[in-house]
Hints:
Blueprint: H1 27-35, H2 61-71, E1 76-77, H3 80-85, H4 92-99, E2 109-111, H5 116-129, E3 132-136, E4 156-160, E5 167-171, E6 176-180, H6 185-193, E7 197-198, H7 211-217, H8 224-227, H9 230-233, E8 234-240, E9 245-248, H10 260-264, E10 273-280, E11 282-283, E12 287-295, H11 298-310, E13 317-321, H12 323-331, H13 339-357, E14 366-374, H14 376-392, E15 396-399, H15 400-409, H16 415-422, E16 425-435, H17 436-456, E17 462-468, E18 474-484, H18 490-507, H19 526-530, H20 532-545
Parallel strand pairs: 2-4, 3-4
Antiparallel strand pairs: 1-2, 5-6, 6-10, 7-11, 8-9, 8-10, 12-14, 12-15, 13-14, 13-17, 16-18, 17-18
Helix pairs in contact: 2-5, 11-14, 17-18
EC number: 1.-.-.-
Pfam families: FAD-oxidase_C, FAD_binding_4
Domain FAD-binding PCMH-type: 103-284
Amino acid sequence: MAHVKHQKWWGWGEEGVFFNYENKPAFAPFVEEAIGVSLRPRQRDTVEFATAQVPESRAPEDVLAHLRETSGAENVSVEDELRVVHWAGKSVLELLQTLRNDFTRVPDVVVYPGSEDEVTRILETAVAEDLVVIPFGGGSSISRSLQAGQDESRCIVSVDMGRLDRVLEIDETSGLATIQAGVLGPDMEEQLNARGWTLGHFPDSFAHSTLGGWAATRSSGMQSDKYGDIADIVRGLRLVRPTATVVLRPLPSTSTGPSLREMVIGSEGRLGIITELTVQVHRLPQEHEVIAYMFPTWQQALTAVRQYTEAEIPLTFARVSDAHETAFSLATQKASTSVKGRLAARGQEALWAVMRRRGWDTDAMCLSYVCFEGTVKDVAERKKAVAKIAKAQGAVVLGSGPGALYDQKKFDTPHLRDFLLEQNTVGDVSETAAPWSQLTTVHKAAYDAAQRAYARLDKTGWIMSHMSHSYHSGACLYFTFAYVFDEENPYEEYHMIKSAIQQSFIDSGGTLSHHHGVGVEHQPWMEQDISPEGVRLMHGLFEVADPGGNFNPGKIVP
Length: 558
């Protein structure tokens, strides 16, 4: 649809946007040492859709007629490319399936409702005609929450919410904005910023994900230390069901039994379709500054962040890369082309030399970023308080230069996955959360599990991590792993490595996912995470709410 933005059918983001390593002189040697790959320049600027072998649509004519009557013929499509855009999310496994034409069950029709009434009528049709309905936001999911079951024989309807993309109202007294669920992150922020407000929710997928998708998958953004996770941000919502619409008013707090709001957040389309949300918004800050710090060790960096939290210093975010991720980040630095840049590079090398003279192991050092927002006075005071704690843990303050660069590039990393796939290399992620007392145990367990899996497959693999999203009781750990895949059998070895890391989370005291959701990818660990009885309760909820199994069946719990 010309008026709804989509990502490219074969990869992440927009056509013409790529990861480029040729202006990063340290990157190719780094990758060769880490996983044994000799990088070659990018050869794939695009993939012609003519190469896709797409299963035919199974949509019956009477179903198409109902949908066209509901949303207009121009908003209903059985075109192969649109069906492929909507068939899966953007996990590396799904990208690999798409590029290899390993399509399982592609949606039969894509419909773009333009109102809540149209969504209601679509769901009524789904129940009456026994269709499968899968809500679609930006398509950025990496937990396989958009893929239909490969044995699904019913007609599958992808309901793309992209036409419902407006900020409807801002209650400036309460700081509440009512927003349609299909709005993409940048479009929403543009509308809010124009009136002096921000949601403050910036996940890695920000440019290609929607407000409704964030709520449906229980998302967390980079700035959650200040603004909260999406479950903290959503105050009210409208959930369309075939029988009626659940309306939850934006009240500051209620005592009305088990929280329906919490029940809907994270439900991944299994209870109905979220059409509208009322969210907490904030005035745009006067100052926004990101400062970089370098710590001698991972443990000292984690201790510092925990102490920021204990001291209740109001931060927008505090992030720490472990030694492996720090080495990766340094390897992605661009070559200096200006006199100023070359001087900065020499200054960095001189700083590393000073650190080594002080007894630092520069292979163990950890890069950290802290974001400060508020008035000029607030930011100055908070920077001083953080610097005092960081220095007490041995850190060197690197200043705002590296921090500004991080802020500019923070949404770029997913493009690296497409580049690596062209090099026959998997690069993917797993994330978890655990109490502070368990964090180093979880970190070590994931490293050990990954290396054991690589050894079983006789592979040289890589793993790295960063800590983000800190809370009073603990924090999120976000792992990235990479290895050269076997072209004959890429899926089995992927599941072996990913499963080893996921199981290590549970065994060492973490959760199966902090913010990517469950989908199908993380189902195997649900009973271990929330207990068998917890899974039975979820089964009961979904069976009562959707007895025909019409709403994104098979997600979260089978």
